[in-house]
Amino acid sequence: MADEQVLPTLPKTPFNGLGSKRAWAQANAPPPPSVSTSSDPAVFSSDDDPALEAYENTRRHKRRYVGTWYDQHLALSSDSAMGDHSSSPAVGSSPVVYRPFRRGKGGVRPQKREFRKLDSGVYMGGQDSTDTEGDIPSPYTPKYFASPALLRVSPRSRPQISEAETIARERIKECVENGNPMVELNDLGLDSVSAETIAPIADIEPIPVVLPGMYFRKTDPDIQVFLYNNNLKEFPLSLVNIEPLTVLTLRNNDLTEIPTCIGKLRNLKTLNLAQNKLKYLPSEILRLMGDEGKLEMLQTVSNPWWMAEKLSFQSVMEHAGPNPLIRTPVEFLDSNGRIYSRFRLPLSDDDLAESTSSLELEVEHPSELEMPKEVSYTEQDAKRLLNPKGARSLFEYALKTLTKLPEPELAEVDCWLEVDEGYPHGLRETLNLAADAHRSGGLTCSVCRRGMVVPLTRWVEFHRTSGATKLDRELLVPFLKIGCSWRCVPEVVVSGGEDCLPKSE
Amino acid sequence: MSDSKYITLVSYDGFEYVVLREAALVSETIKAMLKGPFREAQTGRCEFGEIRGPVLEKVVEYFHYYHANRDQTDVPDMDIPVDICLELLMAADFLGLDSKPQMRDLS
Q1: Residue ranges of the SKP1 component POZ domain (chain B) (predicted)?
Q2: What is the chain A residue with the closest CA to B58?
Q3: Do A489 and A483 form a contact (C-beta atoms < 8 A)?
Q4: SS (H, E, C) A272-333
Q5: Residues whose CB falls within 8 Å of the CB of residue A476, separated by 6 or more in sequence, listed in order
Q6: Residue A190 belongs to a domain with what CATH number?
């Protein structure tokens, strides 16, 4: 062979390369003594010392390597110089390169497992019991739907931090340092706030006033966030993680929707949503105003709210007693998002994007409940649709699992659904809706409080907010309510609504 | 016409599952297969050319889960492994295991 390839230089003997006396001893010494070999086990002063258990373990951990031997040699010699417990990068991990995964909870790397390293001071034969097995980082493995077409989808690039947000960060930092619970982020021209910016607000702890002669008492933080006069288009979701938030002002922004997870802010007392582009509010805010929260002030003026239609509103006011529940008819859907009732809420993207003025919605008499006509059920469907607490359909269960995927995976699935024609019609839309709902805090049935993936009923209730003394059509605020089955509907005041459900066939 | 209490479901990679007929009738598709003048109705053996074994296994699990819980309330949700959930979604759609009422034909 004339052109023999040049081999990489051989390492010196692997034992020298390890560079530690212990490793040399390990390689040359006879196999480690098990408990029953010639010499007696060492006797200690106390036999119930828990440290003894560490010595009974005779199982040896072998190092595992992946890749070429000369690459290993480099990594290995540098590692062993630092000590046995340092992690060597190549150990145990497969040579596949995984995409970096940063966002969300899933991005947290597993903590290094703590190993007991007790030393009695008695040398027992150089067994290396603290091996590196626990240090193997378990890489995030995107197993599902690994198709070459999908691997081209790059994860969302890290958003650049705008100038306004930098100022916001500085102000928040200042507040954290001074223990100032009033976070003033107003008039900055912010159009979005990232979770990293918001998160430190939760760390604010007010500096307590200490007066002579008074007991020191730790006061609960009373955090107030002012975000008025900005250009926020989306509610900053991470705000809901600030549990002690009591005042939140979002006046004069461009919000179009309030997420359901706002229900987590149990300590909220004042919420200012005036001068936005809101059309309705989630029913969670109603709960905050009720027993579950402390919300007292809700400012809602100057939004293009949905309004009760004038004629039907007046007839309800005339015929339905002194303080009627003003609500729309109920919209009935299936798990694919198809609507079966005559009444439809203007909730599609086109509807929401289109009008900036108030839409008028029909009002139903509280003693009536219009059910979908021209629908026939099978027995199974009737059970699934009508039993609020019964078993769900397999479709829903699968959808639920799918929505819980971390975001990059979800983007891949979405892309997959877009490319491939073989999927049922509307699945992509359903999945996107469900994923959006999951991202903004999940959906809970307004009637039975069960969590759900897709709403099967929807309707709007109009309520008075603080300040209004009587039912004035102009001042009512719409709250969107959702139900998890076709029986999760508003309470019908006079006669039972269940009787008018169509019979199953 | 096979009158056995059980029917056999076969996945495309050859896994066979023997299921209580009554439980499997939750699926409208299987119901139709067993009713009509098809070979399936005679043999009580349904072959699915699109569904993989592990997916069909989960479907069968769902049949029994649903059969056991059909008239109960406060049913615990069924767990779906992530790696087959998209396939399962397709299978559920194919087998009619989504709550989808039929619009009555007006003609």
Answers
A1: 6-67
A2: A394
A3: yes
A4: ECCCCCCCCEECHHHHHHCCCCCCCEEECCCCCCCEECHHHHHHHHHHCCCCCCEECCCEEE
A5: A305, A307, A308, A326, A462, A463, A464, A468
A6: 3.80.10.10
What type of residue is A245? L
The verdict on B101 touching A (C-beta cutoff 8 Å) is yes
User: Which residue type does A180 have?
Assistant: N
Task: Let me know whether A355 and A270 are in one domain.
Answer: no
Q: Indicate the pLDDT class of residue A96, thresholds 50, 70 and 90.
A: very low
A398 domain residue, yes or no: yes
- B83 and A378 within 8 Å at the Cβ level: the answer is no
List, for residues B30-51, the tens digit of each pLDDT value: 888 888 888 888 888 888 888 8
Q: How many CA atoms lie within 13 A of B55 on its CB side?
A: 24
Q: Is B81 contained in some domain?
A: yes
Please indicate, yes or no, whether residues A338 and A263 belong to a single structural domain of this protein.
Answer: no
Residue B106 counted as domain residue: no
Among A48-57, A419-428, B70-79, the range with the most confident prediction by mean pLDDT is B70-79
Contacts of B66 in chain A (CB under 8 A): 391
Residue A22 domain-assigned (yes or no): no
The answer on pLDDT for A58 being more than 60 is no
Q: Which residue has the tokens 């916001």?
A: A168
Range of the domain at A405: 321-500
Q: Does residue A391 sit in the same domain as residue A468?
A: yes
CATH number for the domain spanning B14: value is 3.30.710.10
Domain-embedded: residue B99:
no
Q: What is the per-residue pLDDT across A240-295, written as a single tens digit (0 to 9) for each?
A: 888 888 999 999 998 888 888 888 888 899 999 988 888 889 988 888 888 888 88
Chain A CB contacts of B78 below 8 Å:
391, 394, 397
Helix ranges restricted to H, A30-162: 53-56, 69-82, 148-151
Residue A394 lies in a domain: yes
Are both A223 and A276 inside the same structural domain? Answer: yes
Answer yes or no: do A367 and A477 share one domain.
Answer: yes
B103 within domain boundaries: no
Torsion over CA: A33, A34, A35, A37 (sign)? negative
Q: Is residue A246 included in any domain, yes or no?
A: yes
Could you tell me the residue range of the domain that residue B61 belongs to?
6-94
The DSSP code for A35 is T
Testing the interface with A: which of B29, B99, B103 to mutate, by most A Cβ within 10 A?
Answer: B99
Indicate if the pLDDT at residue A502 is higher than 50: no
Within its chain, how far is the Cα of A232 from the centroid? 21
